[in-house]
Amino acid sequence: MADTIAMFSRWVKSGLSGLLDGSSSSSSSVEPTQDNALDEFQRIMRMLPRIEAVLEDAEEKEIQDKSVKLWISELRLLAYDIDDVIDEYEYDDEQVEGHNTLASSSSQVRAISNGMVEKLREIREIFDEIERDRKGLRLREEDGMRRTVSAQNSRLTSSLVDKSSIIGRKSEKVKIVKLLLSDSESNNSIQVINKITVIPMVGMGGLGKTTLAQLIYNDPIICQYFDLRLWIYVSDDFDLMKLTKEIYRSITNKQCEEGIGFNYLHDSINKELMKFKRAFFVLDDVWNEKQCLWESLKVPFHNAGIVNILLTTRNEKVADVMRTMNYFCLSFLSKDEGWQLFKQYALCGDENLMRIGQKFVNKCGGLPLAIKLLGSHLRFERDEDKCMSILESELWDLDSGIDEIFPALKLSYQRMPIHLKPCFRYCSLFPKKQIPDKNHLVWL
């Protein structure tokens, strides 16, 4: 957050109000009038991309301080107002051109900006108010600390799994295991690159990708077929050095010495892998979209015998970067599977409550994480009214919903490209379960 505050502070020190008047003087020194309407309009056009740049930076930083978030929210609303004024001006200008108006450019502005002068004045006043609020809040470069603990940091995974608690995924497991057991040289459906086969498993958060990968990793046939198996939890931060060290430790069972070099790690991994005929890696929760980082990570794998890699990701672009074959899209649980999972967590024998439980499962739409959460809430609940209250609430309105469901979904939003986030937020205006027509959505 300090970086964002520093940017805000630099704006103020150099005359943040100059975004409106193009100088470091006070924003109220030039009052918008009909005579200078065109100048004012050009100034706010220059101002908009600068505000948007700060808003994008704030979005990336994931600021937690409420006072700063409120300030940013007001700045965003101002950007919307400016965007509306620009749209209105451009529309009026097109109308003027369409009627072949012979007036001069300046007279056109006067003609179409009778109401716009007042809007420019309102923008100016709002901007001044935002500036006063910033001073009132006394936002400084050193104010606050950005929270560094994000959704992915609270979730670590390992290869261990309780098989008795898993519902479904049998057919998916069989398909992926079959791919992993197929010798690369004889399987024409797999495009082999230097004996490295990468099978991406793609699906939304909470769908059970990690659980399925754990089942596959511990399958007796997989254990017998591969001489070496490694489980690497990758997470949002694709730290090349950190991941290389983790691979080195997993293969050699040795801790990395202080100051160990990247070249030494690569060379050591390369030599170790040459001892094995078949190696199987699971890279869990991958977010990296940079081809160069992936290419660098897998350099030591090329001299091994056969290396099969199963990776889990929510992002199809990640799968495209790393895959050597078509990725495997994980689907939602069926209604029967969802019901079995729900009963496993609800542990309730009351017939009336179980009928409500069916509605719970339908609400979750086959998402395992949601089914587990709602089932756990019903575990010790015997009051039908309270059960219905839980059923009618949002998942993140529940006591633990914000801690379990929301972070899993929020991480996907955080990793979404900046230019898509407003589109995503816009879609929240539509009623639940209503999928708008793509062309209609674009038109809107």
From TrEMBL:
Residues 38-102 form the Disease resistance N-terminal domain. Residues 195-347 form the NB-ARC domain. It comes from the Eukaryota. GO terms for biological process: defense response. Pfam families: NB-ARC (PF00931), Rx_N (PF18052). Keywords: ATP-binding, Leucine-rich repeat, Nucleotide-binding, Plant defense, Repeat. One of its GO terms (molecular function) is ATP binding. SUPFAM superfamilies: P-loop containing nucleoside triphosphate hydrolases (SSF52540). PANTHER family: DISEASE RESISTANCE PROTEIN RGA3 (PTHR36766:SF40), PLANT BROAD-SPECTRUM MILDEW RESISTANCE PROTEIN RPW8 (PTHR36766). Belongs to the disease resistance NB-LRR family. This is Disease resistance protein RGA3.
